[in-house]
Design brief:
By secondary structure, this protein is of the alpha/beta class. It is 47% helix and 10% strand. Helix 1 runs parallel beside helix 2.
């Protein structure tokens, strides 16, 4: 909270929230937040993140659950707590900070990538389609950044070495992570400016229909484009096999 204290000078109110808290606690905190200003909340930004690095075989169920508590259940509980009020209000934006990791996976990133895949596909995309029926005035936006100069790589957590086979691999992963710090290609200040434009429909978003997903950063964009091209190639090469399983007409 002390790191955010300077925001009070801009008129912001600072509340303490653990996104991994039980739903009842999150509901109470969201009710408090809603009542801070006349008219409630206009934009909900789900930005909390937790990166856990480990080879798949070394991850326990508890490790994965901890990752999902922050990256998956936390945003959904916050959204669920505010959705009735936003739906009644008839307008607003539900903003989810995702990652190119929701498309592209890396060795050692099972926990993080799986939580982002789940967030985008299982929940947010389904939610956006439901809201076109029940609350068309609400906008849902997913941002998929690549590597930006933030504290993300400095805050990666690692599980203890549990399987000797992966010891050298884990050391290499840590070395790579350290090499990224300070060399991220993305400018976070520019990214924030674009995000604000996307929410407000101004600047780079003026006169455009903003899609559900927006990638940011050249590196993330290329990873997502490559994944899409790979899937299209598979569909083309295996189209005959896929169609062969239909009932004959």
């Amino acid at each position: 909270l002390t790191k955010l204290a300077y925001l009070k000078d801009t008129g912001a109110s600072i509340l303490d929230l653990d996104v991994t808290a039980p739903a009842a606690e999150i509901n109470a905190k969201m009710a408090e937040a809603w009542n801070l200003y006349p008219g409630g909340i206009d934009v909900v930004v789900n930005n909390a993140g937790y990166i856990l690095s480990a080879a798949f075989e070394e991850l326990t169920q508890e490790d994965l659950e901890n990752s999902f508590k922050t990256n998956f259940h936390g945003p959904l509980n916050i959204t669920r707590a505010l959705l009735p009020k936003l739906r009644a209000k008839g307008k607003g934006t539900l903003f989810f900070m995702s990652s190119q990791a929701a498309w592209h996976t890396d060795p050692s990133a099972t926990a993080y990538c799986s939580s982002k895949f789940a967030l985008e596909g299982l929940s947010v995309e389904c939610l956006s389609k439901e809201l076109t029926i029940f609350a068309p005035g609400l906008k849902v936006l997913i941002i998929e950044p690549g590597y930006f100069k933030t504290q993300a790589f400095s805050n990666i957590k690692h599980v203890p070495d549990r399987v000797e086979t992966y010891a050298q691999f884990n050391a290499g992963v840590k070395q790579f992570e350290q090499s990224v710090i300070g060399n991220e290609p993305g400018d976070s200040a520019k990214a924030v400016e674009v995000m604000i434009d996307l929410v407000k429909g101004t600047g780079v978003a003026a006169g455009k229909t903003v899609p559900l997903r927006v990638p940011l950063g050249t590196d993330g964009l290329e990873r997502i484009r490559t994944k899409c091209q790979e899937i299209l190639t598979i569909c083309g090469e295996w189209e005959g096999v896929a169609k062969s399983t239909d009932f004959k007409k």
